[in-house]
Structure formats: C-alpha cells, structure tokens
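Duplicate of #3305? Posting structure anyway:
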C-alpha cells in the first residue's frame, strides 16, 4: 500500500529538516579532587556522600525539632509554591509551542455582498454569499523552525523543574542555618545569664567582705561594673533571638507567633555530624540543580539558533474549507450548498532589510552568553564548595581548641574565688578569670554554631536538599 499525499505531508511537517546546530551536552572540565586544605585521603571501605544522603542531609544532625521544622517549611514555604507555578507556566508554554506543529481548524461563518466581481464580464452583477463550515490552516515545518522552538520550550520546562529543586536546596539550607542561629542565641543567653548570676554572687560576696572590713569599696565597684556590663548584653541577644524565630516562621510559611510554642523550650545547637567522604567535583556538578538550570538555558539558546536560521527558508502552508456556501441564506442548509476547497501557499523571504540576519546574530549572541554563564556557574560552584569545606574543617579545629580552653578557665575561676576568699590573691584575679571564662564560653557557643553553619553551607554547595519532596 503506497502512502498517501496527506500522510507524507504530515510526516514532513512533524519531522522536517531542522536547521542549526544540534545541542550536545558536554561535561565541564573539573579537578579530580577537592583542593581544600585538611582534606585527607579516603579511608578504606568508606563510601562517598551519595544522592540519597544529600536529599535529606539535615537528618544527620539528629535533631527532631529541626526535622519537624523542615517538613513544615517544605510543605508551606511560598518560594517553593512559586517555583511550582513556574513549572506549570513552562509546561503550558511547551504545549502551546507543540500545538503549532499541527493544523489549526476553526468554525467559520460569514456573509458577503459582492458587486461586479469580474470586471469586463457581466457588468453590474451583484450577489450575496453566505457560508458556514470549517476552515483549516497548516504551516508545514519543512525546515524545523517550530521543531527547534519546541526543543527550546522543552529545555525551558526542564530548567523550571531544576529551579524548583534549587529552591528546595536554598530553603533547606536557610531553614537549618537560621535554626542553628536561633539555638546558638538561646545558648548564648543561657551562658550570659549564668555568668551574670555568678558575677552577682561575687558582687554580694565583695559587699559582705566590705561590710566586715576585709574587702574594699573599690572591689565592690568593680564587681558591680562587671555584672552591669554582662547584663547589658542580654537585651541585644534577646532581640536577635526573636528575630531568628520570626525568620523561621516566614520560611515555614507561617505568621508571626506560629512557632512560639513549638520552639519555646530550650535546645542545644545541632551538633555537626562527622562528614563522610565528599562526592567528587564531577559528581557535585551533576547533582547541583543551579548548574542544571544554566545547562538547560544553554540547550534552549542553542535550539533558538536553529529557529532563527530557519527564518531564511520558505514557509509552506496548506489551507482548506469544508462546509456550506450559497448566495441565498434560505438555501444555505440544502445539500446543493455543500462546498470544499483547498489551497497551498509558498512564502519565501525576499526583502526584509536585514531583520532575519539580525535575528540570527541575536540568537548567536544569546547562545554565547548562555555558554559563558554556564562556565561561570561551574567555576563559582567549585569555589563555593572549596570555601565551605575549608571553613568547616578549620572551624572544627577551632571549636575543639575552645572547648579545652573553657574547661581550663572554669577551673581557673574556681581557684581564683578560693584564693580570694582565703586572702591569697586580689579581687582583680577573680574579675579577670570570670571575664576570660565568659568570653571563652561565648566564643565556644559561636564556634559550635559556626561549625554547624559551615557544614550546612557545604551540604548546600554539594546540592543537598534537591528532591527533598520526592518520595
């Protein structure tokens, strides 16, 4: 059985001869290993941080409150919902572009009044023409203009999906970072109040000793000044603590006060878990949604190059009418009024004053820009990971050193108080020891938060949190 003319035209219209370059995804050049100082070789039997571990990385902190907060945010955050609507927009745009590959059929109804339609023949002839039927129009995509536009729309849709995943990466890291900040401020408030209580006890001691004639008025004044200085830190810490709570509420999609009861109880700063072997730079590049967004933008720009080139070539369109036509409206619905007609048109650009060439140059420039943006995004991703890894490793060393310092300073405070009450040392030694302990404890609290925050930044740099809502 020989194929019909219609089937051949349909095949030509859907396949066509696509102009322009075909996009080929290429892997960017990346180093074989991370260059961050302190990164040690992998131990035998250890496995890299894989995609599944990265998907819900925050669970490695073992903090139930953080887990619950993350679930609330993923379900209620408005940025996530906005990203979903962009997927719907891109999907609708692709459907619209795809529909242009197929014939368009309209219901047509019309009435005409014609006078002397054929000059030189039957002068003075006047008649009406009424019609009702179906009009069809189909532009055959011989040179792939619509096909390339469909490829670009498909790449845009895939890019919108990657933007949705990137919004999950940003949200989860921001929730975790703010939660760590919230718990750290809670911890700093606890330390400050504890030190204030200790300093107030020292103040009462100096006042008693002064009343007994053992101490001096100068010791009382200095003790009171130090207690007041410590107390002055509390309002600023409380303001920052409330600010972090309000930010968490917005990230979770709630109103101010919605998390007051849930997070009212005190909790420790999430302890940064031991980090497994990092995925290689090449794996990281593949997993990061923001790089996939840039790569899909490059694919779309490449496809639009072909669409621009196709404008140089002829456009073939077919039209047809099927319905009823008659000069008498009362006879329009009789069988004799049945009518049909077909037509073909070929349009070749001839004189457009460089518009098409300018369009090609514009598409080429946009493709080059997309390529350079992709290369830049890769470099920035590598830089972000290297910096986050270095900061995490170095801050962990600092945290361990501060922990030892705090333990020693607590003993120093105990001994200073003992020596002062026994009259062996001056009160200045007590004040210095208390001041040093307070500073060290605050530094340790901040270092614990910085260690966790730097690890969160590292997980973000690795693309952690993408597909967090998938099952």
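Output from current build:
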């Amino acid at each position: 059985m020989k194929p019909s003319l219609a089937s051949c035209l349909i095949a030509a219209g859907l396949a066509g001869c696509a102009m322009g370059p075909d996009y080929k995804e290429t892997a960017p050049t990346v180093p074989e290993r991370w260059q961050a100082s302190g990164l040690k070789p992998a131990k035998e039997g250890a496995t890299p941080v894989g995609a599944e571990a990265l998907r819900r990385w925050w669970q490695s902190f073992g903090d139930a409150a953080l887990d619950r907060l993350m679930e609330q945010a993923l379900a209620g955050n408005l940025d996530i919902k906005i990203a979903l609507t962009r997927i719907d927009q891109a999907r609708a745009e692709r459907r619209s572009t795809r529909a242009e590959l197929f014939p368009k059929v309209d219901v047509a109804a019309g009435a005409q009044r014609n006078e002397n339609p054929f000059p030189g023949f039957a002068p003075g002839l006047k008649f009406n023409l009424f019609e009702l039927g179906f009009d069809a129009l189909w532009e055959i995509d011989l040179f792939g203009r619509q096909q390339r536009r469909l490829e670009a729309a498909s790449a845009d849709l895939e890019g919108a999906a990657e933007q949705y995943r990137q919004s999950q990466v940003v949200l989860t890291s921001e929730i975790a970072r703010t939660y760590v900040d919230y718990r750290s401020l809670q911890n700093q408030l606890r330390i400050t109040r504890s030190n204030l209580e200790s300093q107030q006890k020292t103040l009462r001691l100096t006042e008693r000793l002064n009343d007994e004639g053992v101490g001096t008025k100068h010791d009382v004044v200095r003790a009171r000044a130090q207690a007041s200085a410590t107390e002055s830190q509390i309002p600023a810490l409380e303001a920052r603590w409330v600010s972090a709570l309000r930010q968490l509420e917005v990230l979770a999609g709630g109103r101010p006060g919605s998390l007051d009861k849930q997070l009212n109880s005190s909790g420790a700063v999430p302890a940064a878990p031991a980090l497994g072997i990092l995925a290689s730079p090449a794996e990281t590049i593949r997993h990061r949604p923001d790089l996939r967004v840039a790569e899909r933008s490059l694919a779309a720009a490449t496809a639009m190059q072909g669409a621009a080139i196709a404008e140089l070539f002829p456009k073939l369109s077919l039209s047809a009418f099927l319905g009823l036509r008659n000069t008498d409206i009362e006879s329009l619905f009789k069988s004799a009024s049945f009518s049909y007609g077909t037509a073909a048109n070929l349009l070749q650009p001839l004189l457009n004053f460089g518009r098409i060439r300018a369009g090609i140059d514009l598409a080429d420039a946009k493709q080059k820009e997309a390529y350079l943006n992709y290369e830049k995004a890769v470099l920035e991703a590598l830089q972000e990971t290297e910096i986050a890894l270095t900061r995490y490793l170095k801050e962990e060393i600092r945290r361990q050193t501060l922990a030892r310092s705090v333990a020693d300073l607590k003993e120093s405070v105990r001994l200073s108080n003992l020596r002062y009450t026994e009259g062996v040392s001056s009160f200045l030694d007590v004040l210095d020891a208390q001041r040093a302990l307070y500073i060290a404890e605050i530094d340790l609290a901040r270092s614990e938060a910085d260690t966790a925050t730097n690890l969160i930044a590292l997980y973000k740099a690795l693309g952690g949190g993408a597909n967090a809502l998938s099952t």
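Confirmed duplicate; merging threads. DSSP finds eleven helices and four strands in the chain. Residues 145-211 form the longest helix (67 residues).
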